[in-house]
């Protein structure tokens, strides 16, 4: 087998940005000339454009995806110590926001096929103290919003969608209508961390909602709880999206639909190459959700298989990553929650058996086929 012409990367932001260089340069130049670095016009323009892309949702930009989670929780006015149900298999930010606000993260296990919150585990974790459920749309596919939304409604608790990884994914609701990820629950959050599907050239984040009153409250909370200049209605955060990042994100947003299609084309190649490989499961699809492939994550039969495949691919010039190597309940910072090893068997097993293959919009079909062939030869 021949080596592919270009080296394979996990991510190729330099090349993605080189293709947009003139427009990015213009955005920087205009921002410097206007010199309205905080809450400049590009912030509102970007929010309106992203909202239009997301089917008319209200978008409230903020400083990063972790702040977006904090702001979403703040907007719910939960009593101190209220419980927030979060998946046991996620990035730590999902718990961190709740913990910092004096709320209690309560973990629920995920499904082994979709990696997303298991509604059966969530139902078992609900108590009279539950204030919110945070569903994470992990790796680019929506969690079971139908079941989680029904549970949240029945118990009168909020459903937050942590949509840092699935911006642009769509979900078919029970009534047959289609909605964008992040706009289905009480409030959605997203991140523009550079490696996300829509990445800034630094930190950024946003809140998504269909409710104008909640959008106004979130806007206030993200700006020191300020309702009018020097009138502070609530204790809020200083969490704003820089004008410069908004201007750059406006350029990158135009590319998002094509980038998503490119990711999906790579995923289809991977599926074709890997569907029949024994001991390896390709990412499961929920027929109600589209998948925007923030990651293409396979599952191996055993931890030893996973580690050996990783080493084999590395030898063949194919970088891979493990998202996430340690479940959140086994992180030292969350030992105080009192969970034991073995309590979330699916999350624990996934940490030992998942492997994410290279996935970015500039990965070529030839590279995807080379990677597929390298996996098959293992
Ligand atoms: C990236 C990410 C976040 C945090 O976003 P930041 O912008 O880095 O603060 C939160 N949740 C999930 C699932 C993420 O992937």
UniProtKB/TrEMBL annotation:
Pfam families hit by this protein: DegT_DnrJ_EryC1
Q: Which UniProt keywords apply?
A: Pyridoxal phosphate
Q: Domain of life here?
A: Bacteria
> What InterPro entries does the record point to?
DegT/StrS_aminotransferase (IPR000653), PyrdxlP-dep_Trfase (IPR015424), PyrdxlP-dep_Trfase_major (IPR015421), PyrdxlP-dep_Trfase_small (IPR015422)
Protein's UniProt keywords contain Cell cycle: no
Q: Which residues form a coiled coil?
A: none
Q: Which PANTHER family match?
A: TRANSAMINASE, UDP-2-ACETAMIDO-2-DEOXY-3-OXO-D-GLUCURONATE AMINOTRANSFERASE
Q: Which family does it belong to?
A: Belongs to the DegT/DnrJ/EryC1 family.
Q: What is this protein called?
A: dTDP-4-amino-4,6-dideoxygalactose transaminase
């Amino acid at each position: 087998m021949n080596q592919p012409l270009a080296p394979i990367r996990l991510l190729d932001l330099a090349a993605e940005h080189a293709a947009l260089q003139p427009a990015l340069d213009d955005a920087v130049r205009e921002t410097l000339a206007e010199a309205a670095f905080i809450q400049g016009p590009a912030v509102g323009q970007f929010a309106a454009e992203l909202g239009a892309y997301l089917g008319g949702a209200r978008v409230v930009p903020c400083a990063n995806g972790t702040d977006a989670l904090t702001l979403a929780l703040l907007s719910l006015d939960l009593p101190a110590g209220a419980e927030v149900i979060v998946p046991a298999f996620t990035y730590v930010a999902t718990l961190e926001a709740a913990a910092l606000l004096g709320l209690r993260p309560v973990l629920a296990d995920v499904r082994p096929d979709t990696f997303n919150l298991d509604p059966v585990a969530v139902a078992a974790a609900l108590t009279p103290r539950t204030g919110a459920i945070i569903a994470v749309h992990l790796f680019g596919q929506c969690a079971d919003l139908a079941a989680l939304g029904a549970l949240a409604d029945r118990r009168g608790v909020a459903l937050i969608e942590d949509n840092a990884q699935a911006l642009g994914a769509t979900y078919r609701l029970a009534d047959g209508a289609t909605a964008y990820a992040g706009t289905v629950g009480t409030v959605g959050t997203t991140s523009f961390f550079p490696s996300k599907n829509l990445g800034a050239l630094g930190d950024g984040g946003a809140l998504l909602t269909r409710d104008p009153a909640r959008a106004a409250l979130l806007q206030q909370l993200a700006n020191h709880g300020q309702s009018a200049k020097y009138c502070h209605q609530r204790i809020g955060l200083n969490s704003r999206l820089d004008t410069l990042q908004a201007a750059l994100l406006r350029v990158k947003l135009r590319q998002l639909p094509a980038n998503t299609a490119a990711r999906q084309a790579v995923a289809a190649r991977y599926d074709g190459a890997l569907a029949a490989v024994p001991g390896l499961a390709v990412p499961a699809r929920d027929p109600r959700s589209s998948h925007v492939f923030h990651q293409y994550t396979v599952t191996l039969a055993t931890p030893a298989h996973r580690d050996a495949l990783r080493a084999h691919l590395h030898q063949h010039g194919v970088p891979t990553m493990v998202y996430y190597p340690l479940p959140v309940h086994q992180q030292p910072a969350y030992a105080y929650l009192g969970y034991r090893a073995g309590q979330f068997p699916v999350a624990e097993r996934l940490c030992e058996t998942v492997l994410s293959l290279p996935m970015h919009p500039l990965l070529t079909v030839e590279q995807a086929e080379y990677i597929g062939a390298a996996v098959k030869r293992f």
